[in-house]
Amino acid sequence: xxxxxxxxxxxxxxxxxxxxxxxxxxxxxxxxMRVPSRWVTWPVGTVTEFVRNTxxxxxxxxxxxxxxxxxxxxxxxxxxxxxxxxxxxTYTMQVYRAGIEAVPVGQWEAATALxxxxxxxxxxxxxxxxxxxxxxxxxxxxxAMLKDTPILMAITVLEMLGEAQLFARETFQFTEPLTVIxxxxxxxxxxxxxxLRALERRLVH
Length: 205
Known about the structure:
The chain is built from 8 helices and no strands. By secondary structure, it is mostly helical.
């Protein structure tokens, strides 16, 4: 398949940048949900619930086809990366919330006893412990994002499966390209799981 590597590169770009967006934005959502003000928690909760409970495909269509009518036009790849990152940030938010709530109360009390500023409490005490606890769960969403990348074909992004289908239509050969893509997804998933396990071990020690 002449364009397999192009599709692989697109898939890896979507996975890498989408993961960063989902991890960072998910943490932002989680921290905002702890603000003691309904003026903050209510809109954040409403938005994240809406995103989490609507299909990713609908969100991609909205970003790609509707937003240009409001003056915001992005490339298909950019739209796909933002869409998948935003969608999964609402799931990583729940993971972070669970990790933060799992930090023992004594850690909060110790930070208070030491008179640490709130920013220092979060960055030096709470978040390092919370993140260590949630790395495996975050890793599961990385794999889920990888498996959702073919959805981006709906907005004309030619990732691995898109390139395989294009090749199949041109040559009328379906077995070879689809088999190669299936193996590629397995290999990428396996390598990603190994990397996440290594990260987990590093954080634990």
